[in-house]
Amino acid sequence: MECDEHLIYQSWIFDSNGYIRNSIDQTKCFIPKYLYLASGTNIVLHKCPSYFRPGYAWKISSNGSIQNKKDPTLVMDVTGDKARKGQTIQLWKNMNSEQTYWSAHVWHVRPIPHI
User: Fold this and answer.
1) With a threshold of 0.85, does the pTM exceed it?
2) Rounded CA separation 2/56 (Å)
3) For the chain, how far is it from start to end, CA to CA, in angstroms?
4) What is the number of structural domains in the chain?
5) pLDDT tens-digit series, residues 13-67
6) For residue 47, what are the domain limits?
7) Cα–Cα distances in angstroms (integers) from residue 94 to residues 62, 75, 91, 102, in the given order
8) Residues 64, 75: contact at Cβ < 8 Å?
9) Which residues lie across from 21 on neighbouring strands?
């Protein structure tokens, strides 16, 4: 399935800790697989931690890259030379390349209940 900004299950929420949560199941977050912080580590959807863990948290830089809070030199990157349907997202050293720039479409902002 291709990304469609109108499908709610393809919507994500940045919470106040920097976790990126699924809008339907907010117990699921994007995290580095096995919390291994290195270039090439896949980003997976996994249960969010019950306490703050900086390696699971993200921040958006001024250029649109999504940086890991524990190691800001690592950003979310699309594998390969450009985004395609079904492509893997991974951590990669920030090289200011197009594959590491992201955009968001905000429909409405609402508070996230404490989980």
Assistant:
1) no
2) 26
3) 29
4) 1
5) 889 899 999 888 999 999 999 888 999 999 999 999 888 888 899 998 888 889 9
6) 8-100
7) 13, 6, 9, 13
8) no
9) 13, 29
Distance, CA of 23 to CA of 28 (rounded, Å)? 9
Judge whether 54 lies within some domain.
Answer: yes
Domain annotation covers residue 28: yes
With CA atoms as reference, report the closest residue to 30 among 43, 11, 49, 17: 43
The one-letter amino acid code at 23 reads S
Single-letter amino acid code for the residue at 20: I
Can you give the pLDDT at residue 43? 93
Give the torsion sign (CA, 62, 15, 40, 71).
positive
The answer to whether residue 107 is domain-embedded is no
Cα–chain-centroid distance for residue 9?
15
Q: What is the CATH number of the domain that holds 28?
A: 2.80.10.50
